[in-house]
Amino acid sequence: MNYLPLSNQDAAPIRANIDPWERDIPSLDTVIPLQSTAAYNTLDVIEPIVDEADFFEIMPDYAKNIITGFGRTVDIGGNQPKVAAGCLDINASVKGARFVRFCDAFNIPIITFVDVPGFLPGTAQEYEGTHGLGHVDRVK
Q: Which three-class secondary structure state does DSSP give residue 25?
């Protein structure tokens, strides 16, 4: 895990980089579809912009509608329009919140990509979102 400092008291590791900072990334011109209802893969945005395309995704099989992971010296998060149209649900919210708290504990900056239509609607999401976090007891 050379993306992380040894402790929360240390600075994030800095490594030599061969990517020029001013490089053009032509694929970014076409990754977002012209139709606002069409989905795209957020990884197609993240991977070309990180240094040397070095991105380590955290929990890629859980809450696939949000992407969290490590780049060089920064952490990256963003919703995934290819899954549930990027709509956030309880699991995505928890995954994102835990990732932000982790980054904060190590003083690592976060780059966030946002293209989200909102939260997943429904009483089940509302109930589980509050009850599942221990804030509200179920009324019987």
A: coil
What confidence category does residue 129 fall into, taking pLDDT thresholds of 50, 70 and 90? low
Strands 56-58 and 75-79: unpaired
d(CA 72, CA 81): 24
- The DSSP output letter for 136 is S
Please give the domain boundaries of the chain with CATH numbers for all domains. 26-131 (3.90.226.10)
Q: pLDDT per residue over 2-17, tens digit each?
A: 778 888 888 877 777 8
Contacts of 111 (CB under 8 A, 6+ apart): 71, 74, 75, 76, 77
Separation between Cα atoms, residue 16 and residue 33, nearest integer Å: 34
* Three-class DSSP category at 48: helix
